């Protein structure tokens, strides 16, 4: 634990940034990274697409045997990087990380552990003054934990044998995202956590839900239900069959739409006192919508190539009326 504490403190010290700002910067950087490898065709085909959606077979290490006269050093370097892949089944690791990280932070916040103290010491006064209250902290932690458990369960029961592989950076970025997201869920409540020691009394629902909770909690629950239904339906399909479920009639990837709604609802539910949205979770939401938006666009193009233009005619990629 001392090693983790020193690592956290050293990392924040090197960045010369407030812990909240550093977390927001991570999500912004990750979003920019996704865009940088998704917009150029030569990078997208190598690093973003995988499995059935790949425009060409996965690049194998044998490609490095090409003669230098036939290709440039840049192409060789890109081919080598693209060959560094892990099984697509490693997606399961994302949700294992999410669940374990949520449990870790629950223990840290209750005990005011060393890692929490190391981060709290790096939170600036401006973020301590406007803080989430105890009810928000408890509710948002529970919802994030439930999201991680549900996705872990779905990844296990809806998994099909596949030889599909993904770029190793995608895997590392996914792990980092869930570790940071489970931190973002409480970090703007540091001011409250520093002056209030958590106890079992905080678990009791003794207050009337706010209007924000009354409006946003159903969005989270409804979106979670839709996403689960979509995942179950996709699992029931024969391999590479065009979805005909009502949710897929107007949107190519409604399960991605639901994921975006889940994180947007969390950003609204976790808004600190005096704010209308939690900006750290809003930056987390920005990463989610860009990351899934790129994949949704690729999916639509793949459906169009495999099943014809009529299969996706009039369908939105992910956000009805927008994209």
From TrEMBL:
User: Per the UniProt record, which EC number(s) apply here?
Assistant: 1.3.1.94
Spans through the membrane: 22-39, 90-110, 167-187, 207-226, 247-270, 276-298
Q: Which domain of life is it from?
A: Eukaryota
GO BP, one example?
A: polyprenol catabolic process
**Keywords of the record:** Endoplasmic reticulum, Membrane, NADP, Oxidoreductase, Transmembrane, Transmembrane helix
Q: Where in the cell is it found?
A: Endomembrane system; Endoplasmic reticulum membrane
Q: Please tell me whether the keyword Transmembrane helix is annotated for this protein.
A: yes
Molecular function as annotated in GO = 3-oxo-5-alpha-steroid 4-dehydrogenase activity; polyprenal reductase activity; polyprenol reductase activity
Catalyzes what?
Answer: a di-trans,poly-cis-dolichal + NADP(+) = a di-trans,poly-cis-polyprenal + NADPH + H(+)
Name a single GO cellular component: endoplasmic reticulum membrane
Q: How does it sit in the membrane?
A: Multi-pass membrane protein
* Pathway listed: Protein modification; protein glycosylation
Question: What InterPro entries does the record tag this protein with?
Answer: 3-oxo-5_a-steroid_4-DH_C (IPR001104), Dfg10/SRD5A3 (IPR039698)
Query: Which function does this protein serve?
Result: Plays a key role in early steps of protein N-linked glycosylation by being involved in the conversion of polyprenol into dolichol. Acts as a polyprenal reductase that mediates the reduction of polyprenal into dolichal in a NADP-dependent mechanism. Dolichols are required for the synthesis of dolichol-linked monosaccharides and the oligosaccharide precursor used for N-glycosylation.
Q: What is this protein called?
A: Polyprenal reductase
Native organism is Aspergillus clavatus (strain ATCC 1007 / CBS 513.65 / DSM 816 / NCTC 3887 / NRRL 1 / QM 1276 / 107)
